[in-house]
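User: Quick sanity check before I run a bigger batch. Here is a single chain. Can you write out its predicted 3D structure?
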Amino acid sequence: MTDLALLLPPNASELERNLVRIAPRADLDTAADAPANIASTMPAAFQPWLAAEWNLAQFSLHFPSNAELIAAGLPWLLERGSAASAVRALSWLAYDNVTLEEDEFLVHIDPGTTAAALDLARIRQVVNASLPAHSRFYRLYHGLDLRAGRFDATSFDQCLFDDDSGIWSGDPATDGVKLSFGETHIGIVNAPPALAPIAAHRPRQLNTIVDDSMMQLDSWVPSALRPARGHDYLA
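Assistant: Done. Predicted structure follows.
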């Protein structure tokens, strides 16, 4: 009788060779066909393994079942490495009104709510897994968004001169994310009684520093108790 184990490839294991020698051919054929077409008829027991193979298991905490994880993760895999994949991943965390901006390799994200400030760990996980390697998740903001001034393209108002608004969470040099959140509160107060204006003078000083190697603008208003010096003027 021909040794069927000789038909196996050279890298076959000893267990595989022994199974071929002793198991009925019909049983082997049935076992070989069992995993067929798992993309459309996926056994529940296979799902954790497929999620791990497709690198989706890292998101399992965000889904109630492996089936839902795989259904949501397969489209993400096709978009991974793009802004669209980051927006899709944030929708898994119920952030459905996301604005994502790319400033060269720095990524600014407005999740649409100030509540995201307390959800940074989950947001960082899905965003960092979605962005391309050359990009960096730099800033998360909502309600307070002041950008660094750019003298060649923007006006001086609605911006900061040398930095974006926010405070760092983590190390700015490695994996830190800048958080910039604000809320506007509106209330009604009784108008104060009309008073006659009081004439007053306050010393002010404006210093302009010019550096050939770096363009910068510096202004300073001293307190009313500080004596005026140099080019001070009364306003």
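The beta strands are 99-103, 106-110, 136-142, 147-148, 159-160, 167-169, 177-181, 203-204, 233-234.

User: Great, the batch can go ahead then.
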